[in-house]
């Protein structure tokens, strides 16, 4: 075997072939079991290298796997006579070719002798699979795979697995796939397309656009005929391929071309027999026809360099297929040929690798070379990067049990913490179930954990585990920003915090005003999903989500005054490339992408650099900019005066365990009362039935309990109240309208603290013989309870038709009145508290609890159905006693289409209209009224106080 160099004077090996065959020889000296991958562009002489490889590596028996019958026949014919290698003077004319056998049928005993006597066996995948399942496979010492981008497919993988002890070499022009599956092996040689173009192997390609029009196919056909005739007039020996994507379309195009052109064309598709295809190709090469109409045919391995014009009626949708297709036309190994020409509609519909391939200004020569080399470089970079990951254990596992990191595709999602002292040697918590299946990259500061955990199905009570679930965890640290990114499929706060604690000493979540920076440095924003936190719980809702093609248009200045940004998910352009990005409270970022591990790490780093960059000021130039962004909480303001549960808790309140037993209580029945507000901590109590639990929340939004007493059943999980609050934090309100959730604060409206005494209705409690310090107990020497006095007042009131008494844990309100008008239903809620202070207007504790109850009760006024559902639930527990009206009639009324409105009344006799009121007192009452007045359904708040 010789290595002649191709030149103007003599035919020999091209640069690509010389480089490839020496790389193969070099790699073989290491005797690695890992498959070798050789990347050579279409038309660069891959078949010649394929045939030289067994000689230079001194193999004795070779299996060649090809993707199609046509390619199988071409390689068999060439290897049987060494046509190509003799032509380029690698071998003398008198060299004896190897015994080559074309295995056309699945292996059987009848074929044993033919296969055994052959030096080279050429087969398609299905046939090669049958060979690999027989004992004769042991006689082979080399496998050569042509068009190896097919290797991840099941049949091809089975062949290599069945013959895993045989050295393998993989040849491909496109070492990547549309499904992004790994082509397992080591890249030993890559010959870039730019060098193929420089060396004249890859010819010039030109795109001829057809302006967009309804008669697309007619215009392409007419233009294809014109271009072909003109090329032939200039002396070029050119032929045409008409490309489409379905058999029906091919049949229609056959009729179309015969009617609008004079071209002689033959149609072939996957249903066409091999002999018919062979005759069509023979007619093409004999110049009996002008071209072919194909459905994904004549792609891989087809060598007819005179095929120079492509009429593209249906473009390919993947880069690999597009490059393979273009490569058929860019060959240069023939006389009297010119540029390759591609004719297609300029409809801008198809985007490949972010390039509009079929746009009128597309410069194909540059685009194709750039796309090919960029994609190949990405694949090689990923493989090199993943080599940096080492297993935590040296325990050997079979290849069937080992997950390839290359095949892992996390969706872009991360919980972000600011940390100190990253410990890459940290161990995943036991709850993650990772054990020893851990990979670390010290270069990337990244740890990957894989877990297979046995769990019980949703429908099964007890500890019996029947299901196996697989989990992926990724921990990545960005040293420049001190940010930790955690990917976890279990997205509970407890899991995230356990993982953060395992890899760092101190950690804290990132507030939304910093997370908001991930939207920076982009343009052309289009919001698909936006969340807005309402400080006033409009229509009973504390959080509103808009979803659609342009949700920012639904935001106006009024929205911005009433709500703050909750979460956002949008599409935008970054460096003229479309991207998606989203962020939310709780330090989370996400995108719609699914990326390989190195790409995911790069995505985290890009987002982290934005989050940490204080110089980024986000301007989306949409109405989303009208929403205020919550900021990091530095200290708790002393003006915090009440709290309520998260919107998620109200939407689906979990049940409560007391004393180890599941009760009929739900979490929203728990009374939460603020006890003490410090700069760095809020202390509060949660009480239900006779149980009182003391809790606290620090400025990082971390909840703690002195003694866990209240447990809840959330789904099938039993968790403490603290665990639930860490996942679903309370919402704290201040008297100046600020809202605090977790470690964030959103400033409010200063007008909220303006209070008018006109909001107070003075009640003559003495006239009703009332003991204003007795809310609902038995009569005292001083008089009757406030509840008894109210019942007297209501008895004489004819303005309503239904009166409901609902005093007790989890109440809607102490009293509810419902009136039916001609076109409306009016509901009034009355919240009652007795006077506790020594003097009027002197103790804010008298108003804290009752104002808080008023605010929280707006959730039951979201709609008639919401109120009705709550009434029915309370009635089942022996509550909601009707003092006036019939409940069945009330149910029918609340199911009508009449307009629904509500009013709120706070009954507190310690509030005096005629005595000076301290500023703190006014702030609490004003903030409550401001909140209730802006809560949508409720049209006003009145205070029944004293003279």
From TrEMBL:
InterPro entries: Helicase/UvrB_N, Helicase_ATP-bd, Helicase_C-like, Helicase_Restrict-Modif_Enz, P-loop_NTPase. SUPFAM superfamilies: P-loop containing nucleoside triphosphate hydrolases. Residues 214-390 form the Helicase C-terminal domain. Residues 27-193 form the Helicase ATP-binding domain. The keyword Nucleotide-binding applies. GO terms for molecular function: ATP binding; DNA binding; helicase activity; hydrolase activity. GO terms for cellular component: cytosol. PROSITE patterns: HELICASE_ATP_BIND_1 (PS51192), HELICASE_CTER (PS51194). Keywords: ATP-binding, Helicase, Hydrolase, Nucleotide-binding. Transmembrane segments: none annotated. This is DEAD/DEAH box helicase. It comes from Desulfosporosinus fructosivorans.
């Amino acid at each position: 075997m010789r290595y002649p160099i191709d030149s103007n004077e003599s035919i020999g090996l091209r640069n690509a072939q010389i480089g490839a065959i020496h790389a193969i020889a070099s790699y073989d000296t290491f005797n690695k079991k890992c498959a070798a991958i050789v990347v050579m562009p279409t038309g660069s002489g891959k078949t010649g290298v394929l045939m030289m490889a067994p000689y230079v590596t001194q193999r004795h028996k070779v299996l060649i796997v090809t993707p199609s019958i046509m390619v199988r026949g071409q390689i068999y014919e060439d290897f049987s006579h060494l046509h190509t290698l003799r032509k380029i003077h690698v071998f003398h004319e008198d060299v004896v070719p190897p015994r080559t056998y074309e295995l056309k049928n699945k292996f059987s005993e009848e074929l044993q002798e033919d296969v055994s006597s052959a030096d080279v066996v050429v087969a398609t995948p299905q046939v090669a699979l049958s060979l690999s399942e027989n004992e004769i496979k042991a006689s082979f010492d080399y496998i050569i795979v042509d068009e190896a981008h097919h290797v991840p497919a099941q049949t091809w993988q089975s062949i290599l697995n069945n013959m895993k002890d045989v050295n393998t070499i993989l040849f491909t022009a496109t070492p990547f796939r549309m499904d992004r599956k790994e082509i397992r092996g080591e890249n030993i040689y890559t010959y870039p397309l730019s060098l193929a173009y420089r060396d004249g192997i890859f010819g010039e390609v030109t795109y001829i656009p057809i302006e967009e029009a309804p008669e697309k196919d007619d215009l392409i056909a007419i233009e294809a005929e014109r271009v072909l005739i003109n090329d032939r007039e200039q002396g070029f020996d050119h032929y045409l391929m008409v490309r489409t994507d379905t058999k029906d379309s091919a049949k229609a195009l056959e009729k179309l071309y015969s009617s609008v052109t004079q071209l002689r064309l033959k149609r072939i598709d996957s249903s066409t027999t091999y002999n018919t295809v062979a005759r069509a190709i023979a007619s093409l090469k004999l110049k009996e026809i002008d071209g072919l109409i194909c459905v994904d045919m004549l792609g891989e391995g087809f060598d007819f360099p005179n095929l120079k014009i492509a009429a593209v009626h249906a473009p390919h949708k993947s880069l690999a297929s597009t490059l393979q297709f273009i490569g058929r036309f860019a060959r240069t190994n023939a006389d009297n040929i010119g540029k390759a020409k591609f004719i297609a509609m300029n409809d801008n519909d198809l985007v490949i690798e972010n390039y509009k391939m079929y746009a009128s200004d597309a410069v194909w020569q540059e685009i194709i070379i750039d796309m090919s080399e960029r994609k190949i470089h990405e694949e090689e970079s990923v493989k090199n990067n993943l080599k940096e990951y080492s297993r935590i254990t040296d325990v050997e596992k079979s290849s069937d049990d080992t997950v390839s990191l290359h095949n892992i595709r996390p969706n872009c999602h991360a919980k972000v913490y600011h940390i100190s002292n990253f410990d890459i040697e940290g161990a995943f918590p036991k709850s993650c179930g990772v054990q020893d299946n851990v990979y670390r990259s010290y270069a990337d500061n990244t740890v990957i954990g894989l877990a297979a955990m046995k769990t019980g199905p949703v429908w099964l009570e007890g500890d019996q585990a029947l299901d196996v679930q697989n989990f992926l965890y990724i921990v990545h640290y960005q040293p420049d920003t001190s940010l930790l990114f955690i990917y976890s499929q279990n997205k509970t706060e407890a899991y995230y915090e356990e993982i953060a604690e395992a890899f760092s000493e101190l950690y804290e979540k990132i507030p939304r005003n910093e997370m908001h920076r991930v939207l920076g440095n982009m343009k052309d924003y289009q919001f698909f999903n936006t969340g807005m936190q309402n400080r006033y719980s409009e229509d009973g809702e504390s959080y509103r989500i808009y979803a659609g093609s342009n949700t920012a248009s639904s935001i106006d200045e009024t929205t911005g005054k009433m709500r703050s940004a909750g979460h956002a998910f949008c599409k935008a352009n970054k460096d003229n490339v479309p991207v998606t990005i989203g962020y939310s409270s709780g330090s989370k970022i996400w995108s719609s992408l699914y990326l390989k591990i190195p790409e995911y790490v790069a995505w985290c780093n890009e987002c982290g650099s934005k989050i940490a960059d204080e110089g980024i000021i986000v301007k989306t130039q949409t109405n989303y900019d009208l929403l205020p962004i919550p900021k990091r909480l530095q200290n708790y303001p002393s003006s915090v005066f009440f709290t309520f549960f998260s919107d998620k808790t109200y939407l689906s309140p979990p049940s409560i365990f007391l004393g180890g037993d599941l009760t009929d209580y739900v979490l929203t029945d728990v009374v939460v009362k603020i006890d003490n507000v410090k700069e760095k901590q809020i202390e509060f109590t949660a009480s239900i039935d006779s149980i009182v639990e003391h809790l606290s929340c620090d400025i990082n939004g971390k909840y703690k309990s002195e003694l866990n007493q209240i447990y809840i059943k959330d789904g099938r999980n039993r968790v403490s109240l603290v665990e639930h609050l860490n996942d679903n934090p309370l919402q704290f309100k201040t008297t100046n309208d600020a809202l605090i959730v977790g470690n964030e604060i959103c400033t409010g409206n200063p007008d909220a603290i303006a209070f008018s005494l006109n909001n107070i209705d003075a009640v003559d409690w003495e006239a009703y013989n009332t003991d204003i310090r007795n809310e609902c107990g038995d009569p005292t020497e001083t008089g009757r309870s406030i509840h008894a006095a109210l019942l007297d007042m209501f008895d004489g009131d004819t303005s309503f038709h239904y009166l409901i008494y609902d005093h007790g844990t989890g109440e809607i309100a102490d009293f509810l009145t419902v009136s039916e008008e001609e076109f409306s239903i009016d509901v009034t809620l009355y919240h009652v508290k007795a006077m506790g202070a020594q003097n009027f207007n002197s103790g804010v504790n008298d108003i804290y609890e009752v104002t808080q109850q008023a605010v929280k009760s707006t959730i039951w006024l979201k709609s008639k159905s919401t109120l009705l559902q709550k009434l029915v639930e309370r009635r089942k527990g022996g509550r909601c006693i009707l003092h006036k009206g019939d409940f069945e009639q009330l149910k029918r009324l609340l199911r009508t289409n009449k307009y629904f409105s509500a009013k709120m009344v706070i009954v507190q006799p310690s509030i005096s209209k005629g005595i000076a009121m301290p500023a703190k007192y006014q702030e609490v009452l004003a903030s409550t009224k401001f909140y209730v007045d802006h809560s949508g359904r409720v049209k006003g708040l009145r205070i029944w106080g004293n003279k």
